[in-house]
Specification:
The chain has 116 residues and is an all-alpha fold. The protein has one domain. Helix content is 64%, strand content 0%. It contains three helices and no strands. The radius of gyration is 15 Å and the shape is elongated. The chain starts with a helix and ends with a helix.
Length: 116
């Protein structure tokens, strides 16, 4: 799961870098679809640094917070480019981060909260 999330984040980085290098956004492929269900777990954690011997729950909480921070970043960027075509890209990236955060929250709920 963590490797998959890291791969998705690298894809976002590559999309943005390619758009900057080519100076165009016409061929950007985004559009992950998901049902947004915020369990609010990301709101109760603080960012931490991942260390070798952390529990799965702690790593998932860090990943949730990271996705939430990225969502806020993309939301902010969309606001800065309001009315321009690039606003759509940042809105799509924000939506994908919400999907990532929700997927992590559901996994956390399933693996950690259900055990307690």
């Amino acid at each position: 799961m963590i490797k998959e999330l890291a791969s998705e984040e690298l894809n976002h980085k590559n999309i943005i870098n390619t758009a900057i290098e080519k100076g165009q956004i016409e061929n950007i492929k985004l559009g992950e679809k998901c049902y947004i269900l915020d369990l609010g777990i990301a709101n109760i954690v603080t960012p931490e640094v991942v260390e070798k011997d952390m529990s799965v729950g702690t790593v998932l909480r860090i990943a949730m917070k990271y996705s939430e921070n990225m969502r806020l970043f993309y939301q902010n960027m969309a606001g800065r480019f309001r009315g321009e075509e690039v606003e759509k890209i940042f809105n799509q990236l924000e939506h994908e981060e919400m999907c990532h955060r929700n997927n992590i929250q559901l996994l956390y709920d399933d693996m950690i909260l259900s055990e307690n």
